[in-house]
Specification:
Oligomer: single chain
Radius of gyration: 36 Å
Structural class: alpha+beta
Largest sheet: 10 strands, antiparallel
Number of helices: 6
Helix content: 55-70%
Distance between the termini: 17 Å
CATH architecture of the largest domain: Orthogonal Bundle
Strand content: 15-25%
């Protein structure tokens, strides 16, 4: 954060405040029918983490302001010294001018010249002296205004810094309240640790089973598609699509939009990242996230992130749907839908609603699991979608 400018830090602070509002709205607004302490603990940890990032950002911004205040204070000291010298010189010059005027007039000074050339030189000197006096007077006015402007800026900077300090204290107090709630949840978990571990392992096992099923479907889809290709390469790569010129162009366009692709929903919050990660509560248990987990508002739709074709639709034993969309040799997976607006074989466009995201009646949460593949290789979606 040290290399960031004040403007960048202000932008980051706004983003984090918006994220905290989303966390409160999406994770803590719904009244839960049944307590899920592991889920609640994860949510509180996420809120604490965002608040801590906000505090770090506020502190970084306050440090920049402190440096600017110190620089401006030094400028004021330097300018005041220069102004004092200017005023002293100007006062001396005015005094000398007054004394010389009392001794002899300008006309007498000119008439007392020995010759015309000397008179001309004296006239030029008088003009230059008058001009210099005027210029020095103007410089004093300018310097005075500059000092006043910097003092005004200093006052404003100090007010902003005071506001930042108050904001940091407020966030710190909220973190302390969240930590108290966290401690209560941890004590509940410790009482029934074996049960929670057992439930968690069951959930991890189910996630792995679903992931393996999708992998198998994609491999079968690749095999079927490649079987229909007439002019196959001599040594086709295993589990990779043999692309037609149109499919290759689509895949190239998909790749060129890396980092610029839209989110698979209108508004939401990433509540689980991609990849292997240690469980925040139970040491020794590792979560292997195949994609991104989003939490969003009730009645939200999943939206396709790019033009493509519906490759397949999976339905779980609980009735949840998973839509697979093909974009050349890239596949996007939209899991945990309760209602579909598309069917297998449909051509879809970027931003099109493909289904309504399921809302859990017990937790009150609306979650979408989004996975990105290149052939059968899972990619980190965070590197491909827009940063918010």
């Amino acid at each position: 954060m040290q290399g960031q400018t004040k403007k960048e830090l202000e932008k980051r602070q706004k983003k984090l405040k918006k994220e905290i509002a989303l966390v409160n709205n999406l994770l803590f607004k719904e009244i839960k029918k049944e307590k899920n302490v592991l889920e609640d603990l994860k949510d509180i940890n996420q809120k604490i983490s965002i608040r801590q990032n906000l505090i770090n950002t506020i502190n970084a911004e306050a440090k920049i302001l402190s440096k600017q205040i110190a620089i401006n204070e030094q400028k004021v000291i330097k300018l005041k010294k220069e102004l004092a010298v200017l005023k002293a010189d100007y006062a001396s010059m005015i005094f000398k001018s007054y004394k010389s005027r009392s001794q002899q007039s300008k006309i007498m000074f000119l008439l007392s010249s020995d010759n015309f050339y000397q008179a001309y030189k004296r006239l030029e000197y008088m003009k230059q002296y008058t001009s210099f006096r005027k210029k020095q007077g103007e410089e004093i006015v300018t310097q005075t205004k500059t000092v006043a402007a910097i003092i005004d800026s200093l006052t404003l900077q100090k007010q902003v810094k005071d506001t930042l300090i108050l904001s940091e204290k407020e966030q710190q107090q909220k973190i302390e309240l969240d930590k108290t709630s966290k401690e209560k949840l941890i004590s509940i978990i410790k009482k029934n640790e074996k049960k929670y571990k057992r439930d968690l392992k069951k959930k991890i096992k189910e996630e792995k089973r679903v992931s393996e099923k999708i992998d198998k479907i994609i491999k079968e889809a690749i095999a079927r598609a490649n079987k229909k290709v007439k002019n196959k390469p001599k040594t086709p790569k295993k589990n990779e699509f043999i692309l037609s010129p149109e499919a290759k162009a689509l895949a190239t366009k998909f790749e060129s939009n890396k980092g610029k692709l839209p989110w698979p929903l209108e508004e939401g919050l990433i509540t689980r990242r991609f990849g292997r990660q240690a469980h925040p509560t139970f040491p020794g248990i590792t979560l292997n996230s195949t994609g991104l987990h989003f939490t969003t508002k009730k009645d939200s739709d999943a939206k396709t992130i790019f033009n493509g074709k519906v490759l397949n639709i999976l339905v779980t034993s609980e009735g949840r749907k998973n839509v697979l969309i093909q974009h050349g040799n890239y596949i996007t997976s939209y899991n945990n839908l309760e209602k579909l607006y598309v069917k297998k074989g449909d051509v879809v466009s970027t931003g099109q609603s493909i289904g309504k995201i399921f809302t859990d009646k017990v937790s009150g949460k609306t979650k979408l699991i989004f996975v990105l593949y290149k052939n059968t290789t899972k990619l980190n979606p965070s590197s491909w979608i827009l940063r918010r």
